[in-house]
Amino acid sequence: MPTEKELNVNLLDKLDLLERLEMADNEGGYEKIKQQLAFEKKCIERKLYQKPPITEI
Questions:
Q1: What is the pLDDT of residue 13?
Q2: 36: number of Cβ within 10 Å
Q3: Would you say 54 and 47 are in contact if contact means Cβ atoms under 8 Å apart?
Q4: pLDDT 10s digit of each residue in the chain, 57 long?
């Protein structure tokens, strides 16, 4: 079971993501949001598949 701190970190990460997407919308609309989504996906995949995994540090 995750601790409160772990839950807060995850929620803050999601809030950061939403704020970046809102900024992309303000800067360039649909195309800018598509670019930002592709970038965010790469960042998430990088964390997900990193070697060694975060839990083994």
A1: 92
A2: 19
A3: yes
A4: 878 988 888 899 999 999 999 999 999 889 999 999 999 999 888 888 877 766 655
Rg, Å, the chain Cα set: 14
DSSP line for 3-55: -HHHHHHHHHHHHHHHHHHHHHHHHHHHHHHHHHHHHHHHHHHHHHT-SS-GG
pTM of the full structure: 0.68
Question: How many domains are contained in the chain?
Answer: 1
Query: Which domain does 16 fall in, by range?
Result: 4-56
Distance in angstroms (rounded) separating the CA atoms of residues 48 and 29: 28
